[in-house]
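Quick entry, no commentary yet.
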Amino acid sequence: MKIFPCKNGKSKLLLSIVIILSACIVYFSEDASASSANNIKVLIINEVYPKIPSKDEKIEKLGSMQGDLLVMGSRYSGNIDVWKGENGLYIINELPLEDYIRDVVAAEVSPEWDMEALKAQAVVSRTYALYRKTINGNALYHLASSVLHQVYKGKNGDVRIAYAVSATTGEVLTFDGNIIEAFYHSTCGGRTENPEEVFGKKYPYLKSLESPCDLSPYSTWERTIRIDEIEKAVGIANIEHISIKSYTSANRVRQLSIKTASEMITINATDFRKALGWSRLPSTNFTITSTDTGILFQGRGYGHGVGLCQWCMLRMAREGKKYTEILAFFYPGTTIQLHEDR
C-alpha cells in the first residue's frame, strides 16, 4: 500500500479516520482537483456509512483528497470529501458525470444484457442524475449511492457498458425542453404504477403501462414475515390482524389496516414496505394470508413500479427494439436531447 505523506496534523487525523472507520485502502495526494460543472457529487451509502445527513445536522468538512478509495470492496475514484457530522462521518465522491454513469449502469443491470437495454439504462441513469443535480446544485451532494436514488458501487471497467455509455454520451430525456425526473425500477410485475400513488405527484410523461417482465426472478415471489418482526419494524405493538384496505388504480396495495388489541390503524403500503425493508417486501403488489407462523405475502415485482421497468427493458431489447423505442414507450411524449454542459 502506498500512501503519500501528509502535510499537517489535520491531514494525518483525516487519513487515520478514513482508514480506521472505512476498513479501506487509500491512495491519495493532498491536492484535490477543483469542482467541475461536468462533475457529479455522490454521497456514499453502504454498510459502513448507512445514513444520510439530516437537514438540521451540523457538519464540518475534514478535508478533500484526490485519488482512489477502497471501501468494503468497492473502489471510488475522483475527488473524495470527508465530512464529520453529529451522527458520524460522511464521504462524498465527486467525479466526471460520464464516469459515474458507466459505474451506475454496471451496478444497476448486468453487463451481459442486450446492448440496446444497456443504452437505454445509460440514458435513464444520466437523465436521473442530471435532474437531481439540477435541483440540488448547491447542496452538499447531488444524490446518494443506494436505491434511495440509484445504485453506485464505484469503478467498473466492463467494456460493453463503456461502449453503451459512450454511444449515448450526453443524451438525456426531456419534456418541453426540461430534463425529466426519470424514475425507474427493477420489476413492475406486469404493469407500472402511476407516480402520484408513490410520490404524490403527477407527471405528464409517466403513466401506468402494461409491461411484461416475466424474465425477472421477481416476476413472482413469496415472503412469510413473523408478526413480531412486523411489530418491531412499524412500531405497533400487539398486532392481531393485518388486511388490505385499498388498492391503487394499477391494482397495487395502497393502504393496509392493522388491528391491535385496542385500535384499528391505517398505514400506507409504501410506508409499510419501507419500514420492513425494500428487499424484505419487494413491492406493494401483493396479497396477504394469515398463517401459523405469521403473514404470508405473495407478490409480483420489485421496486416502486414507477417509470421504466428494467426487466421489461431487457425483454424489449431481446425482441429487437432500439433503445430509443424503449425509452419512448416508458416515457411517452419525451424527447432525447444532448445535455449542454456535458
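second:
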Amino acid sequence: MRKPALLAVDAGGSKIDAVLLRRDGNVLGAARRRGLDHDGTGRESFLERIADAVVAASRDAGFEPDHQPVAELGMYCVAGADLPADDRRIAGWFRRRGLTESDVVRNDTFAVLRAGTERTWGVAVVCGYGTNCSGVAPNGRTFRFPAFGELSGDWGGGHDIGAAALWHSVRAEDGRGEATTLRTLVPKHFGFARPKQLTEAMYFDRIAERRVVELTPIVFRAAAANDAVARAIVDRQADEIVRMAGVAVRRLHITRLDVDIVLGGGIFSSGDENFLQRIGRGLAEVAREARVRVLDVPPVVGAALLGLDTIGARPEAQRRARTALVNTRLGAHPRRERG
C-alpha cells in the first residue's frame, strides 16, 4: 500500500485520536486511546501513548508500521504545546521516533478552531478539564495563551469548577459562606453526608483530589435549579471564556470582522442555555459580528484539515475528510477506502 499522505493527531488530557488519510481526503485508518494525563502533556509517557494510537491507526489501515514512517506528514495537535519551546521539544520527540517523514506540532486549540469553521482563521476556546484559547487572524498571525493553570493566571474547566463547588460546600457547612444545595450534593456524590468528611478523605489521600472534576455536572444541575452559589460559579466560567476570547480577538485586531469563535470541550455540553447566552452576549460586546459556535464534531477533524491545508490538498479533499471523520466512530472500525 502506498504510504498515506497525512497522519492527523488530536491529543488531549482525556483522549487521543489518530487518523491516517490519503491526499484526496479519504480516511484509511483511525484509532482512539484514553489520554490518562490531566497534569500537562508532553511527558514522554504521554507521547508514548500518542505513538501507541498511531500504531493502532496504522493497523486499522491494514499495515504494520515496522519502525518506518507511517505517513509523509504528521500534524500533531497536542495539549501541553503551550510555548514555542514546547513545540520544539515535542516535535523533537516525534522526529526521533520517526513516526512521519516530516511533522508539525500545534496546540490542540488550533484543531478545535479548524474543526469548527470552514475558514482558516478565527478564535477557539477549549474548556474541558482545564481551559485554553488561541486565535488566527486572516493574515495568518496567531495568538495563544500559555495555559499553565494558576501560574499563567488561568481559571476554568472541570477541575476549577469542581474545586469551587467543594470550597463553597465546606464554607456553607462551617458558616463562612452562603447557604447552597452544594453543601449536600457535593459530599453525596462521593458517598458522604458532610463536606467535612469529604475534605478529610481527600486530605488523607483516600480520594484523589483530582476527582473534583466529577462535580462539574452537579454544579450545572444546581445552577439550572436556581441555586445562587452554583449559578455564580457557572457565570464566572462564562465570563472567563469571554475574557480569554475577547483578548484574542483584540490582539489579532479582528473586532470588526465576522469572526467565528469556536467553543470546544466537555463544559459546553452541559445544555445550560443561560451559560451559552451569557457567553454570546459578552462576546457580542467585543466583536458585534462575531459568530459563536459550539463544536459538534471530533477535534481530530481540525487536525486533519490543518494537515490537508499544509500539503495543499484540494477543497474536495477537505470536504471528503470532514464528512468521513464526522461519520467515523473513533475507536471502532471506520468506513474507509484501501489503496
